[in-house]
Write a structure and sequence with these properties.
single chain, about 400 residues, alpha/beta, Aspartate Aminotransferase, domain 1, Aspartate Aminotransferase, domain 2, 7-stranded mixed β-sheet, 3-stranded mixed β-sheet, globular, binds pyridoxal-5'-phosphate
Length: about 400
């Protein structure tokens, strides 16, 4: 029997969220992820909040690859990597990822959350210092929390190179300096100043870590992510990313780094030492997603065209969207309840664009986050604009 005190605490929280209009709805989708999905009890809606940036979640070759994976290797590894859970398809995928993102080697994980929780406690030592952008993703924040208590940790202001340089100047006594940033910031839709970050890291001999979960498949002519966008492909020390967005959308993540760093992660990283490996279905389908992009980069051009059309359309309707090349467009509302109300109104109009409120974003900075996909047709974009016009 759960304690009455605990049950009451849960009830109070849910009641608070309900009465303040902050309770998140969980829509039940009854079709593959694609621009138009079927929602239980509601019918068809246009999805503007999936991370399905290249529309590969229901690509026939990606689906077929997943089927091939389950046929060749069964449902799963039934083991962690170092015992008997390393399959040939893991090694094949890791070679593909490393080639695609421009690192010497890579290691796959069941999620990028796991990858970020593996990275920092495994590679950062007690005499190091971590300098992390204030708007970095929650998985980076939690990953840094797992690092030794003795390790120094500082937050620098969002994309503020002066603040970062001040902190680097003050960190001369530490063994290894780590600068940690999202490539594309998931709630703001802006990009890190990568060339300047690389320059600063070279100047202060710091290691640069970029989580490119929202950049991979999206930025750069060939979809290789933030480094390609800035013509810095192959120049970032450590890149993490997800397979759960543009690369097929199933699940899974990776760390790309030097061969030596990957060996240390394999030997010492707790998430892969104590938890099962990526299912073969995903190793196959994500690997196929990479092949699809490599064979047909026009899919990335289509995404870039759609992003430009979408941003222009919203601006014409009077929405203030900060210019950015990314596929994430936050529409700032401010008040939490108001953002969720507007999102609910869009839903009535047949458009799924979720309102984000605390604790996902800071209090008072609630927003509707629109995400663009290459799979959207002009008709879909027009339908979205019609709904936004009614907001
Ligand atoms: C920047 C960033 N890093 C990591 C993650 C976690 O990815 P995954 O779903 O693979 O755990 C996300 C997902 O939202 C993200 O936006």
């Amino acid at each position: 029997m759960p304690s009455a005190l605990f049950e009451n605490r849960c009830t109070d929280l849910i009641n608070d969220l309900t009465s303040s209009g902050q309770l998140k709805p969980f829509y039940q989708i009854e079709s593959p992820m694609r621009p138009i999905v079927n929602i239980d009890g509601h019918g068809e809606v246009l999805v503007l909040c999936a991370n399905n940036y290249l529309g590969l979640a229901d690509h026939p070759e990606v689906i077929q690859a997943g089927i091939d994976g389950i046929r060749d290797y069964g449902a799963g590894t039934a083991s962690v990597r170092f015992i008997c859970g390393t399959l040939k398809c893991h090694r094949d995928l890791e070679k593909k990822i490393a080639g695609f993102i421009g690192t010497e080697a890579s290691l796959s994980y069941v999620s990028c959350w796991n990858a970020n929780e593996a990275l920092f406690p495994t590679l950062c030592g007690p005499d190091d210092v971590l300098l992390s952008d204030e708007l970095n993703h929650a998985s980076i924040i939690d990953g840094c929390r797992l690092v030794s208590k003795k390790t120094a940790k500082h937050i620098y202001k969002h994309n503020d190179l002066n603040d970062l340089e001040d902190k680097l100047k003050q960190s001369g006594d530490y063994q290894c300096r780590w600068v940690i940033t999202d490539g594309v910031f998931s709630m703001e839709g802006d990009v890190c100043p990568l060339p300047e970050l690389i320059e600063l890291c070279e100047k202060y001999e710091a290691m640069l870590v970029v989580d490119d979960s929202h950049g991979i498949g999206v930025l750069g002519k060939r979809g290789r992510g933030t480094p390609e966008h800035f013509d810095k492909f192959g120049q970032v020390d450590v890149i993490t990313g997800t397979l759960g967005k543009s690369l097929g959308g199933a699940a899974g993540g990776y760390i790309g780094a030097s061969q030596k760093a990957i060996e240390v992660l394999e030997q010492r990283g707790r998430p892969s030492l104590f938890s099962n490996a990526l299912p073969a279905t995903v190793a196959y389908s994500a690997g196929k997603a990479i092949e699809v992009i490599e064979n047909d980069p026009s899919i990335v051009t289509r995404l870039h065209d759609n992003v430009a059309k979408f941003r222009e359309g919203l601006a014409n309707l009077g929405f203030q969207c900060t210019p950015s090349p990314t596929a994430i467009i936050p529409i700032m509302i401010g008040d939490e309840a108001e953002a969720l109300k507007k999102s609910a109104r869009l839903f009535e109009l047949g458009v799924l664009a979720i309102g984000f409120a605390f604790p996902v974003v800071p209090r008072g900075e609630a927003r509707i986050r629109v995400q663009v996909s290459a799979a959207l047709t002009d008709e879909h974009i027009q339908r979205a604009m019609d709904a936004f016009a009614k907001l």
